[in-house]
Amino acid sequence: MSEPRLDESVLMSLKEVMEDEYPLLLETFLCDSQERIRLLQQAIANEDAPAVRNAAHSFKGSCSNMGAALLAGFCKQLEEAGRTAQLAQAPALLSAIEAEFAAVRELMQAPH
Amino acid sequence: MSEACTVLIAEDNAADRLLLSTIVSKQGHRVLVAGNGAEAVELFQQERPQLVLMDALMPVMDGFEATRQIKQLAGDELVPVIFLTSLSETEALVRALDAGGDDFLSKPYNKVILQAKLGAMLRMRALHSTVLQQRDLIVKHNEHLLTEQRVAKAVFDRIAHAGCLHAPNIRYLQSPFALFNGDLLLAAFTPSGGMNIFLGDFTGHGLPAAVGAMPLAEVFYGMTAKGFSIADVLREMNQKLKRILPVGVFCCATLLHLNLHQRVLEVWNGGLPAGVLRRKRDGTQHALISRNLPLGIVEAERFNDHCEVFAIEEGDRILLWSDGVPECSNVQGEMFGEERLRELIAASRHENLYDSVRDGLQAFSGEQQDDMSLVEIAVVDEASLPRQSMPVSGSTKQSPLDWSASFDFRASTLQAFNPLPFLMQWLLEVQELRPLAGTLHTILTEVFSNALEHGVLGLDSALKADANGFAAYYHERQQRLEQLKEGWVRLSFDHRPDQQGGALTIRVSDSGGGIPQHVLQMNTPSTPFSGRGLRLLHELADQCWREEGDGSLNIRVRWQHE
């Protein structure tokens, strides 16, 4: 994969915009992402394709805002699976998202 | 940097919401946040933000529906909605535009692009609200203008109502607001039972075209009621307009005097389309051509008040119109035109002249247009018209009842001066004579023109037997008057009170030896002019006799106490 796990330039500009509230932004993102993953798990378990699509779409948006390009890429694939209602690959994609998110969280929580 | 305003952010993702609101508030705007579409609509109603950033997919109510509702709530006001969605999602893009979205912003958010878009949208919003303000201002101005026109029209109607446009022999077509297109139509009875009709067309439109109408109407009604000739009325109108109107504003006009007991039509036309006099007897037509400059252009000394004179008979019709008639156009923008109008007039039956022209115009243009005036005057028997009586003044002023006076009018005065209005004004100081004003004016007109034309100028009324002779008579009259070196007309008045009321005796003599005895005795209607006039005197006066000594004519009119 050529996509970086975390785009440093995006994070730089986020720091610049958020200033003191940068840690709050990271915390909000991490917290919100866990909620998204929970929604995705539920939607896939229920085989609810539109719900998969919406949750993946929303998650994709915030990932791209936070510079988590690789994670955004997995979300996009899952969103597409939801849009076309072909959920066969969904559990595998969800596993990839969970693993990638764990890695991103570690990076974000590491002291700078 | 655009002016600070309130921005509503509707986004269900907390991190994105935090990021966006931080960027927007750092640009100096107040931020409201909503987590779904329903919240967004509610916040919009409460806070009326100026701009909305709207995520497309949200729980409870999505961004498309929320946008539709917000746009509806905003009404006339422009509230830009920027959708937070990627431009690569074609389907969402179309739905966003359908819902009323104005722009898009894709993730990841870029501070600079967001700022530029906010700025552009707020400028557009400002422009839109300027347009709205100006629209409202124009509406207000227009209402104001219409109110002013209504007021001006009400004032004008009060002046114009002194007239007799409602007389049974007049028919006309004119929009109630024609005044503001510069068209002016006036009609009034003369004291001797004739009629003056004025059709004018001021240059320009709106209030500037209407202001000149007021003084014209006052001059017209005031002088007509006092019995001034139309030449006098025209001179006064011209002078007044010349004095008050700015250069380049003037009034094209036709003024008619219909003398119903002498059956004479006097016409003056300055700049108006040539009207038509149509004979009932044989359907022949005379064009009432413009031979003068419009009113309000030339100096008093150069003003030509010369009128054309036509003999008329009962049933003859006169049709006048303003430029708006030939210039009216149909839906294709084609003009009605002078030629079409003349053909229409020529082809119409005599009794239907007015109706044919009016119907022809309406069939052509499809609707009544505001800026045209059309008027038809029929020559009728004087007795069929309501006779105007002079209002008795309410004052308890004492009338002069016992007096006599005598006036001599000599050559140079006879050339340039019509003494009748002044004599009338003096006579009507006797309040009790006011109900007889019409009778007195008719008598004075008759005896004065008789003394002037036959006694002083030596004209032979036998000339007036036919239409050609008629024109020749008036031509000759004018020539002889211009060359007049000597001669005089004497008018003496004697008023005395008596047991029943009072009596006014009018005595007329002239340098030509007065009225011949045989003329006074001729009482038959077959004699063309004098016979008719003198028969009238016998009808109107209580007594009428010739003094053998100087050939003077004496007329006595009595009045009685109520």
Automatic annotation (TrEMBL), chain A:
HPt domain span: 18-111
Modified residues (Phosphohistidine): H57
InterPro entries (alphabetical): HPT_dom_sf (IPR036641), Sig_transdc_His_kin_Hpt_dom (IPR008207)
Keywords: Phosphoprotein, Two-component regulatory system
Source superkingdom: Bacteria
Single annotated GO MF: protein kinase activity
UniProt xrefs under PROSITE patterns: HPT
CDD domains (alphabetical): HPT (cd00088)
GO biological process: phosphorelay signal transduction system
Protein name: HPt (Histidine-containing phosphotransfer) domain-containing protein
Organism: Atopomonas hussainii
UniProtKB/TrEMBL annotation, chain B:
Keyword list, A-Z: Hydrolase, Phosphoprotein
GO MF term list: phosphatase activity
One record GO biological process: phosphorelay signal transduction system
Organism: Atopomonas hussainii
A Pfam family reported for this protein in Swiss-Prot or TrEMBL: HATPase_c_2
Residue ranges occupied by any Response regulatory domain in the UniProt entry: 6-122
Superkingdom per UniProt: Bacteria
InterPro entries associated with the record: Bact_Sigma-Reg, CheY-like_superfamily, HATPase_C_sf, HATPase_dom, PPM-type-like_dom_sf, PPM-type_phosphatase-like_dom, Sig_transdc_resp-reg_receiver
SMART domains per UniProt: PP2C_SIG, REC
Name this protein carries in UniProt: Response regulator receiver domain-containing protein
Modified residues (4-aspartylphosphate): D55
